[in-house]
Amino acid sequence: MHGMMQDEPGRDAGPAKIGTDHSAMRARNERLVLSLIRRHGALAKSEIARLTGLSAQTVSVIMRALEHDGLLIRGAPVRGKVGQPTVPISLAADGAFFLGLKVGRRRSEMVLIDFLGRPCATTARCHDYPTPEATLRFARTSITELTATLPEPLRHRIFGLGIGLPYQLWQWADALDVPEAAMAAWRHHDIRAELAAELPWPVLQENDGSAACNAELVFGAAQLPQDFAYAFLGFFIGGGLVLGGSMFAGHSGNAAALASMPVPDGTGGTRKLVDVASLAVLEARLAANGHSGSFLWEATEGWLLAPDLLRDWLTEAAEGLAHAAAAATALCDLRALVIDGWLPQELRARLVTKTRAALARIDLSGSRCPAVIEGGVGPQARVIGAATLPLSARFLTEIAALPPSSTVG
Q1: pLDDT tens for each residue of 223-264
Q2: 307 lies in a domain?
Q3: Distance, CA of 193 to CA of 23 (rounded, Å)
Q4: Domain range for residue 372?
Q5: What are residue 398's DSSP bridge partners?
Q6: First to last CA, the chain
Q7: Does one domain contain both 288 and 238?
Q8: Taking a C-beta distance cutoff of 8 angstroms, is the pair 123, 109 a contact?
Q9: Which neighbouring-strand residues pair with 91?
Q10: Is 271 found in the same domain as 206?
Q11: Structural domain includes residue 77
Q12: Do 315 and 293 fall within a single domain?
């Protein structure tokens, strides 16, 4: 989780002066409370006071403000053996909504999620390759359609649009087997700025792999380690790097460019991870066997794949992922590799199992063997991750700033 919650209209939106500016401190504390409840689930005021170190009176003021804003709801009182009953307080599902746009090389999607991260409505289109003009048309139409699915009183609770866009998309014309000119427009087109000029909300943009990683941080397993690499297998492979519980983007925003990582090719040389661990490879092998791979982009159920073709792809992908995980762990002392993708759940589970086995065969002397974990968000991680960008920026604080999970209870 990263970013900060912006002040509501009417509040001081000037530069934050933590410790001296009352409204900035209040906004920070509100983000902290919302982040704790998102991470741990329903909490009583006394538990929030203990976790944050804030006074009971301060917590009460914060909770009242967040309830008034429609962001929190009270549960039924829980009576213990002694003392007053406690009241668990949870996030309000309809307290805020966010739009996410994922631009894919074969499929683009838009989603509307609620404050709990649950998809309320989605749109999608498949294409041979994306262009800025077609993407903007899809985005505008989808925004209208998705917004209309909300009751009128809730539409003012949409707080932003996030975009997940592959890094330097114009460089992938050869891989998509389309003319270079077909992708060249991405070099000069800024769809974020164009949409921001038209929409009443903030519009944020991130690499699609990093966006998926952000979805894992916000909505994935609560017990993720503080340091891990994240891999999402789509048409190509992308991912993110998490250090100290927060995304590490690098100076150019392209940290964890997994597609470009060199891995053994089995003959004493190397090849890029994207050449083994990506659905593009699977589609190409289907084509080489006289089968269309278009079904890969339509849904993640009902994939009919020849057992030997699937076995070979899984084995090579797992070997590549294992070597990438070993190298990243040796460099960054990571605790885990999290694997997700535009994959059937059963296929993702098999890939994780094979990657664990491949890691066990690598000599990791002087390093540690990272855990290999299934992602918690699933095939829609990139588009949901795009929607988490405005959620994180407005309502969350850094994971590193939160008390550890083990202190709850």
Answers
A1: 889 999 999 999 999 999 999 988 898 887 778 889 999 999
A2: yes
A3: 30
A4: 222-376
A5: none
A6: 23
A7: yes
A8: yes
A9: 72
A10: no
A11: no
A12: yes
- In three-state form (DSSP H/G/I as H, E/B as E, the rest C), the secondary structure along the chain is CCCCCCCCCCCCCCCCCCCCCHHHHHHHHHHHHHHHHHHHCCECHHHHHHHHCCCHHHHHHHHHHHHHCCCEEECCCECCCCCCCECCEEECHHHCEEEEEECCCCEEEEEEECCCCCEEEEEEEECCCCCHHHHHHHHHHHHHHHHHCCCHHHHHHEEEEEEEECCCHHHHHHHHCCCHHHHHHHHCCCHHHHHHCCCCCCEEEEEHHHHHHHHHHHHCCCCCCCCEEEEEECCCEEEEEEECCEECCCCCCCCCCHHHCEEECCCCCEEEHHHCCCHHHHHHHHHHCCCCCHHHHCCCCCCCCCHHHHHHHHHHHHHHHHHHHHHHHHHHCCCEEEEEECCCHHHHHHHHHHHHHHHHCCCCCCCCCCEEEECCCCCCHHHHHHHHHHHHHHHCCCHHHCCCHHHCC
Within a domain: 202: yes
Residue pLDDT, tens place only, 285-333: 999 999 999 999 999 999 999 999 999 999 999 999 999 999 999 999 9
- The amino acid sitting at 337 is L
Rounded CA separation 45/43 (Å): 7
Q: How much of the chain exceeds pLDDT 70, in percent?
A: 91
Strand partners, 35: none
- Report how far residue 387's alpha carbon sits from residue 115's, in angstroms, rounded to the nearest whole number: 10
Same domain, 185 and 158: yes
What type of residue sits at position 295? F
100: which strand partners?
A: 111, 162
CA distance 153 to 365: 60
Q: Please tell me the distance from the alpha carbon of residue 62 to that of residue 365, in angstroms, as a whole number.
A: 50
**Is residue 36, in this structure, part of any structural domain at all?**
no
> What pTM did the predictor assign?
0.88
Q: How far apart are CA 210 and CA 275, in angstroms?
A: 20
Please, what is the angle between helix 56-68 and helix 45-52, to 10°? 120
Phi first, then psi, for residue 69 (nearest 5°) are -75, -5
